[in-house]
Please model this.
Amino acid sequence: MKNFIFLFFVGLYPAQQSWNLQQCLDYASTHHPLVKQATVNVSKNEKLITGSKGILLPSVQAGVSHSYSFGSSINQSSNQREALNTQYDKFYAQADWDLFNWKNILDISLSKLNKDTSVYKLKLAQNKVKLNVIQMFFAYQNSRSWLEVLETQISGMEEQIRRTEKEVEIGNRSKSDVYDIKANLGTLQEQWVSAKNQRDQSKINLLNALAFNGDTLDFVMANENLSAAAEFQDPDFTEKLLEKNPAYQSVIAEIKAQEKREDMARADYLPTLNGSYSWSTFYNKVLGKDNGSTISFSDQFSQNKNQSLNFGLSIPVFNKLQVKTNVEIAKLNIINANYDKELVVNDLTQNINSIKAQFLNAQEKYNLLDANFENQKLSFQKSEEKYKEGLMDAYTFFVVRNGWLQANYNLISSKNDVIQQTELLKVLQSEF
Model:
């Protein structure tokens, strides 16, 4: 029975999964609401292309009507108005076709541009989500590393207290050493509470960046090799990233769309040619009289057939300055779109150069810390030997030990910073 209860609760609470950064990016790039919305917009614009092409086709409609007339009516047999009650049935089919309307042709091109823009915006949404996930992922890793450092310090100090108390009992150390260590332990425990809160909050932020509901995930670092700065040494580094960035491509597509809208506005100056074809017939019956005089339905259906074919040419002459106004507004929209391009270029240039600067600084810092790490390790080992031999007091060893653990954390944090900037660069370099 106990085993059954245990299995029930295990099934009720799913096991925690461990995701690395790539798994986080893969999930967010398909499941985040921003990405889903952008995907829907792509599908919507694909449908609009089909709709734009459909405008070039004729529209066809057919119908039938059944009506009664009481009082004065036209006698269909004599074509004279009489006091009649009649039944009238009409059957018709009609087709209308825009034979020439340049605006319809341009609308197809515009819908294709809008679809391209939506594809770029989808990629832009994915990049935006990925960049946020990367930042939140490494914020969580750093906060967790700092918490582990504090836990290691606290664990070491608790052991140090127990060892020092034994040495006090045998007279090798003074009681004040125990008091010093306990006072520093209290300070570290306060820092541990703050670090734990920071770790928990950074995990919440990461889950929010993933748009993942629930807390069944743990996030781990994969084995990452630090990349060189070769990409950053290219003199055209910023320009190359600008050209392939979806934010830049999206604004370029929007400029082309605005130019196409100006052409569409000008198309209202051009004449349009329309054609229509209609076919109809009817059946008429006088009510309340001898039906023998009424022509049969099949005969009337055949005799009353009518067909018409019409062509019309519409030439705009004066439209209350509406077309001129629309053209001028379209020109202003093009100017505004070019200003949007300048804003995008400025923001992207700043972001790209910032990533470059942070990567180079982080790499330089990591190289310095890594080169000095072995010396710090040897220094700590010597200090630990002195403390065990009674040649160093507890407080001094506490300072040395904290410095060693801080050096460990600094190296990990610096390495994470290098990897973070590398991952941000990968997102900016990614193409469709």
